[in-house]
Amino acid sequence: MRVFLTGATGFIGSQVARELVGAGHAVLGMTRSDAGAAALVAIGADVHHADLGDLEAMRAGAAQADGVIHTAFDHDFSKYVASCEQDRRVIEALGAELKDSNRPLIITSAVGMGERGKGEPAIEAVLNRDHPVPRIASELAGNDMLDAGVDVRVVRLPQVHDTMKQGLIAPYVELCRSKGSVAYVDEGLNRWSAAPVADVARLFRLALETGQAGERYNAVAEEGVPFRHIAEAVGQGLDRPVQRIIPEQAQDFFGWFAMFAELDMSASSDWTRARLGWAPTGPGLIDDLERMDYQPGRSS
User: What is the pTM assigned to this prediction?
Assistant: First the structure.
């Protein structure tokens, strides 16, 4: 299959590109830079120069493919709402190109969109349309495209990690470094699900090869790691004190990160594993946090 892959040189997308090429697929990888183009050529992928803001260029990439995997996202969380709205527009543009065909569009979302409340882990069968996190815009756009006749499938991400990056935990590390201490809210019992990046890349491939229109897949290896355990691992790595703060102090300490610091983002992948035969094998989140390099200037 010839696959147009957005974000093909990013943290997750680069792993997806290697996974697809290794499985015999032809990859048309989106990149903005000459360095990114060289990296794609080096693994045997073709190059499509485009930027997330250039919707016509995105459509042109989709027009050349048998299917699309959309992993690109602007991860500047200081403008998270705008980034989520941009993602909505990109999904609509890609969907318009694939409408009324059997070419799948696999989009990326977050596990929290399947939140059930009452402390229960998020599941694939639920779409919480009123979720307060702005990333819900991606799934609502995907649903609109599904209704319009596009084969939309969703991969929902937890904290995706290796020893260099860990989803929202990477900016949390830098925030705590700047503060001189590491904090969690209340008892820190809110849980964050997680998965190693190589396992997540394999799930994207399985969603492409054996998934079905309208299905959602939770890329979850660990159902829920208590945030206090994350804070303690980060504190040890940074060699900074770890402190408990009350909810009223969260905004002052965390700034934009406060919207996430108290969230429970636990999630189950039982259905995904059974449906796609996905079995994650990589290290745990705390293992990677304990093995990473916390020196300033590391990749983030």
Answer: 0.95
